[in-house]
Design brief:
Elements: E1 2-4, E2 9-16, E3 19-26, H1 29-38, H2 41-48, E4 56-61, E5 66-71, H3 90-96, E6 100-102, H4 105-110
Antiparallel strand pairs: 1-6, 2-3, 3-5, 4-5
Length: 129
């Protein structure tokens, strides 16, 4: 089953100059194993495309079920040099959570994150009050 990372992980982000760092946190070891296998530095670089001009490095922190990505030349020069409306790394965390990966259906059904969202009515307009 294809799901977005937001249904499986949390994210923290930071920035310094023109470097953005994003850390994904899995809720359990099974999820961490799947995310660790599929969310590579190359995949993250491809996900961001031209938005990140430099290399992407990945660091594993298995003791806290986390993957840290350091993205160089990711903030349009950083601070006052950037022409981006938001030149900080905070918004890149939300963008990373939109990366989709394959997981067993049982994993998404067991995910507390997937059940925290209000259900969407994709059948038509919302019911009248």
């Amino acid at each position: 089953m294809r799901v977005l990372l937001r249904d499986l992980c949390g994210v923290r982000s930071g920035d310094k100059g023109d470097i953005s760092d994003l850390t994904l946190f899995a809720d359990d070891e099974a999820t961490y194993a799947v995310v660790r296998e599929q969310v590579t530095a190359e995949r993250v670089a491809a996900h961001f495309g031209a938005l990140v001009a430099g290399p992407v490095e990945r660091f594993e922190a298995a003791n806290v079920l986390a993957l840290k990505f350091v993205m160089h030349a990711a903030l349009g020069g950083g601070g006052p040099r950037s022409l981006r409306s938001d030149n900080l790394g905070k918004t890149l965390g939300g963008a990373l959570l939109r990366l989709d990966i394959d997981v067993p259906e049982s994993m998404i059904l067991a995910s507390a994150r997937a059940r925290r969202r209000a259900p969407l009515n994709l059948e038509g307009p919302p019911p009248s009050a």
